[in-house]
Amino acid sequence: MIKSLSLNGTLRALIEPPDTPERLSLTYILHQLDDRARGVLIILFAIPNCLPGLPGTSAVTGLPLLFLCVQMALSRPPWLPRFLSDRTVSKDWLVRALDKAQPWIMRVEKLIHPRLSILTDGPAERLVGILGSVLAFTIMLPIPLGNTLPAVALVFLSFGLIGRDGVWILAGLFVSGMAAALLALAGWAAFQSILFLWMQWFGLS
After folding, report:
1. How do beta strands 23-25 and 88-90 pair?
2. Which of 19, 65, 145, 194 falls 20 to 30 Å from 134 in CA-CA distance?
3. Dist. CA 66–CA 127, nearest whole Å
């Protein structure tokens, strides 16, 4: 089990040892992590959705993210059912995602300090779980580039919970608002397009 490391060190220790399997099951990842398992797992599966050049990430990461966030909302310890825990991800895929994310992860870690704990403990954590569930569901939707902001918000919220830093929770709320605005704009544009095509079809324009 991995303990007492920074987030970057924890992720590196998880995927870089020579005896690490080429494909990592979610059970393996969960067992290797310490009591920060939920937050680290959410970050691990949200990061690839924040990065360009990693296609198909939402299909792999969306459902585990949703399940972990729902558990947080229900104040239950991190656990994955077999149909999820037996799923595997490529070690090389995770290494590439971490290589791209490492510079800003290390910068972010220097900015995390325990503060505004009212936003990270007890009922606040459950509310973060509810919001995270909505964000995870949004990541699963087939919206072009629609998973980026929700994934960034999840990363910020998880940083806040791991570091007991309410400032990062506030940052996650802000990015969640941006994601909601973008989703609403995309929905309005889609509605306008459908309405225009309908009017053209029936000659109502």
Report:
1. antiparallel
2. 194
3. 14
* Burial category of 116 from C-beta neighbours within 10 Å (exposed 0-12, middle 13-18, buried 19 and up): middle
Average pLDDT across the chain, whole number: 79
Among 43, 34, 35, smallest CA distance to 13 is for 34
Residue 88 φ then ψ, to 5°: -125, 155
Three-state SS at 205? coil
Cβ 156 vs Cβ 171: under 8 Å: yes
Q: CA 180, 181, 186: angle at the middle one, nearest 5?
A: 95
Cα separation, 157 vs 174, in Å, equals: 10
Say if CB 65 and CB 87 are below 8 A apart: no
Q: What is the distance, to the nearest Å, from the Cα of residue 113 to the centroid of all Cα atoms in its chain?
A: 21
Q: At 157, is the pLDDT very low, low, confident or very high (cuts 50, 70, 90)? A: very high
- The span from the CA of 171 to the CA of 152, in Å, is 10
Q: Apex CA 171: angle with CA 151 and CA 117, to 5°?
A: 115
Q: Report yes or no: 133 and 69 within 8 Å, Cβ to Cβ.
A: yes
Residue appearing with tokens 């969306």: 62
**DSSP H helix total and E strand total for the chain:** 9, 2
Say if CB 172 and CB 156 are below 8 A apart. yes
Look up residue 23 and give its two tokens: 């494909």
pTM above 0.90, yes or no: no
% of the chain at pLDDT higher than 90: 16
